[in-house]
Design brief:
Layout lengths: L2 H8 L4 H15 L5 E2 H9 L7 H5 L1 H10 L3 E5 L2 E4 L1 H13 L1
Antiparallel strand pairs: 1-3, 2-3
Length: 97
């Protein structure tokens, strides 16, 4: 499943949604437990139907918001992981579609 497909299935509309789609792909499809900011941005860019250049400029704000919402964990400086309940929710959502 590609990042584009995940973004579509999640109904992604905003930058935060694309960040979550990118993290979901890195975690669920590629098996990564943690991912760096640069990994996330590279994966976001693969969601070609959804990614906009402004999203890279707003990435810090998106990451901070998602950490504050407990959807992502900042495990080290500029290194992130999906929070366990977020990961479980994504797995369920993506398996339904």
């Amino acid at each position: 499943m590609t990042t584009n497909t995940i973004a579509s299935r999640l109904g992604a509309k905003k930058g935060n949604d694309i960040v979550i789609a990118a993290c979901a792909h890195l975690s669920l499809a590629k098996g990564a437990d943690t991912f760096t900011r640069s990994n996330i941005l590279a994966e976001m860019k693969l969601a070609t139907n959804y990614y906009k250049q402004t999203m890279s400029k707003n990435l810090s704000n998106s990451l901070k918001t998602l950490v504050n919402q407990n959807k992502l964990l900042e495990t080290a400086t500029d290194t992130y992981a999906l929070e366990a309940s977020t990961k479980a929710q994504l797995e369920a959502q993506l398996s339904e579609n």
